[in-house]
Amino acid sequence: MSRTEALWKLNLPLLHMEGGMNENGKDSYIAGLKRYRERGIPIVIDGEVCTEPDWNRIFEAREDNSFYMADFVSDDETGRLTEIRFDRVYHK
Questions:
Q1: pLDDT digit string (tens) for 72-82?
Q2: Which domain of life is it from (predicted)?
Q3: CA-to-CA distance for 55 and 26, rounded, in angstroms?
Q4: 40 and 88 in contact (C-beta within 8 Å)?
Q5: Average pLDDT of 28-43?
Q6: Which of 20, 28, 85, 90 meets the CB 3.0–4.6 Å disulfide criterion with 71?
Q7: pLDDT of residue 8
Q8: What pTM does this model have?
Q9: Sequence-separated (6 or more) residues with CB below 8 Å from residue 28
């Protein structure tokens, strides 16, 4: 099993869905991020380690059709998750 497959087995929902994510989905996603942070995995948004109050911005709708995409970064040698990074991407 690849590292990516192993990470998706953790059942985190997709961020970008047609029509957005409902409040229960957002709460569930945030709860998952909290569990990672409690294990020492930093949550990085736009290159900065962010605290929980900042996490909601990954769900914000934008007029420029951009959205945040998660990248699960792992250590090349051990395969262990080292950070969860959110970067803005643009849908054309």
A1: 999 999 999 99
A2: Bacteria
A3: 10
A4: no
A5: 94
A6: 85
A7: 46
A8: 0.69
A9: 13
